[in-house]
Amino acid sequence: MTMIKFKPSPPPATAHERAPEYVRAIAPYVGGKPIEEVARELGLDASTIIKLASNENPRGPSPSVLRAISVAARDLTRYPDGNGFALKAALSEALHVNADQIVLGNGSNDVLELVSQAFLRQGDHAVYSQYAFIVYPLATQARGALGIEVPARDYGHDLDAMRAAITPRTRIVFVANPNNPTGTWLAGDVVESFVASVPKDVLVVLDEAYNEFLEPSDRVDSTSWLARYPNLVVSRTFSKAHGLAALRVGYGVMNAAVADLLNRVRQPFNVNSLAQAAAIAALADNDYVAESRRLNREGLQQLARGLDALSVRYLPSHGNFILIEVSDAARVNQSLLEQGVIVRPVANYELPEWLRVTVGLPAENARFLAALETALGAQPASARARR
Ligand SMILES: Cc1ncc(COP(=O)(O)O)c(C=O)c1O
């Protein structure tokens, strides 16, 4: 009698193995370390730690915004206005666009995701620059689309090369102005010529998260270009200069037909009621933003002076952060953490020798510079000599 040997069938695939390959290949976003986490890990007192890692406004929101939040907090029972009528009306007045051209987001990150969700499918291309904000590759990859990373020029966007990278498969081009983490910036006329040169069936997403930190002489009214370029999307946020990062509210301004598509894929209640009320108040408080811009400019100068004194190279920044080159960045970062100073390593941007430092209040900037001096002093002589 012959024995028939049954081969055990392979175990069924687990649910997570069935997820699309392009999703499983995504490298998770790494944010700035929370103060509490650093306190726990290093046994430090949380109240002594400073965080200069996520490009927030060190002043927080203005008093008028805090008042608006406390009024809105009296009614948390109802869902927020899913169409954000009052906030869109305020933005429409401030930006001279129609309300139906505005899409509100849970942070401007949400707007970037919505554009990708509505316009990218597997096999499509999205073009962005080397060292550009990391959400562009993440949002592209999450749709199975192909990210075309164009080599940077002097750490900033090379718009000619980005234009040349556009093919019939390109659906979106992302431009960050100013860019995070490099702080590089392109003049308005240069950006507008680029937008004009892009084929009309390709969206240009102009990410202006740090727009309010630009000097008024450098700032252009890019939303006014929408009348000429129906393929333009301008995204902005209340997270940075307005000091509202925790509430998550941003917006995109675009052609009404594009906005309509984004609204179809948007979660119905993506911006909560406290965030909407806070954003309306923030938009009205121009003086607070102007003062934040002034403090930021002085903070950048303070950091530049201190870095010069330490012979540390940095990139001139148009944002509220500065990218510094310290060769052994992982070790310098660890030393800073042990001294209670959280900054952002940017090895995930292929910048393993650099750290990004958010501009803080004057005392925070001074504390960072002192901690950096200590960290560099402890650096091996061979590494220091390379600076
Ligand atoms: C260039 C850029 N765009 C967009 C964002 C998203 O910010 P938020 O989602 O808080 O509006 C950031 C945040 O760091 C950024 O640096």
> What is the radius of gyration computed over CA atoms, rounded to a whole number of angstroms?
23 Å
Average pLDDT taken over every residue: 95
How much helix is in the residues?
Answer: 25-40%
- Each distinct ligand: pyridoxal-5'-phosphate
**Number of contiguous helices:** 14
Strand order across the largest sheet: 2-8-7-6-5-3-4
Measured between the Cα atoms of the first and last residue, the distance is 80 Å
> Which of globular, elongated, flat, extended, rod-shaped describes the shape?
globular
Low-confidence stretches: none
Beta-strand residue fraction: 5-15%
Q: Give the number of DSSP strands.
A: 13
One letter per element, helices H and strands E, the order comes to HHEHHEHEHEHEHEEEHHHEEHEEEHH
The major sheet is characterized as: 7 strands, mixed
Instruction: Give me the secondary-structure category.
Output: alpha/beta
Write the layout of secondary structure elements.
Elements: H1 21-24, H2 35-42, E1 50-51, H3 63-72, H4 85-95, E2 102-105, H5 108-119, E3 125-129, H6 135-141, E4 146-150, H7 159-164, E5 170-176, H8 188-197, E6 203-207, E7 232-237, E8 250-254, H9 256-265, H10 273-284, H11 286-309, E9 313-314, E10 321-325, H12 329-338, E11 341-342, E12 344-345, E13 354-358, H13 362-377, H14 381-385
Parallel strand pairs: 1-11, 3-4, 3-5, 5-6, 6-7
Antiparallel strand pairs: 2-8, 7-8, 9-10, 10-13, 12-13
Structure, described:
By secondary structure, the protein is of the alpha/beta class. The protein is 37% helix and 14% strand. It is built from 14 helices and 13 strands. The protein has helices spanning 21-24, 35-42, 63-72, 85-95, 108-119, 135-141, 159-164, 188-197, 256-265, 273-284, 286-309, 329-338, 362-377, 381-385; strands at residues 50-51, 102-105, 125-129, 146-150, 170-176, 203-207, 232-237, 250-254, 313-314, 321-325, 341-342, 344-345, 354-358. It has a 7-stranded mixed β-sheet, sandwiched between helices. Strands 9-10-13-12 form a 4-stranded antiparallel β-sheet, with helices on one face. The longest helix is centred in the C-terminal third of the chain and has 24 residues, at 286-309. The model has no long low-confidence stretch (mean pLDDT 95). Bound molecules: pyridoxal-5'-phosphate. Pyridoxal-5'-phosphate (PLP) binds next to α5.
